[in-house]
Each structure stands twice: as structure tokens, then as C-alpha cells.
Design goal:
single chain, mainly alpha
Length: about 50
């Protein structure tokens, strides 16, 4: 389960890094992070983690 979390973390990091290199607006990156964090917390609740 930790490996899955690490994989997701590295994936999100690379996605954000590529977005930053494209030099998109910071608001878009913030929205991406917020949506991602919500999905992670929902996934943790569904898998029984606190």
C-alpha cells in the first residue's frame, strides 16, 4: 500500500513539474493540487486509512 502511495506521489510531482515547465498559470496548478488532495483523502477513507 505504501508503494502505491509513493507511486501516486511521484506521478503527481512529475505532472506538476511538467505543468510548471510549460509555465501555465499558478491558479491552474493550485486547482490541480486541491483536486488531487481531495481524491487522495477520499481514497484513504475508502481503503480504511485515517
Amino acid at each position: 500500500r505504501m508503494l502505491l502511495i509513493q507511486l501516486v506521489n511521484s506521478l503527481s510531482t512529475s505532472v506538476i513539474a511538467s505543468w510548471t515547465s510549460i509555465d501555465d498559470s499558478l491558479v491552474d496548478i493550485d486547482l490541480l493540487c486541491n483536486a488531487f488532495q481531495k481524491r487522495i483523502s477520499i481514497w484513504k477513507i475508502n481503503s480504511g486509512q485515517t
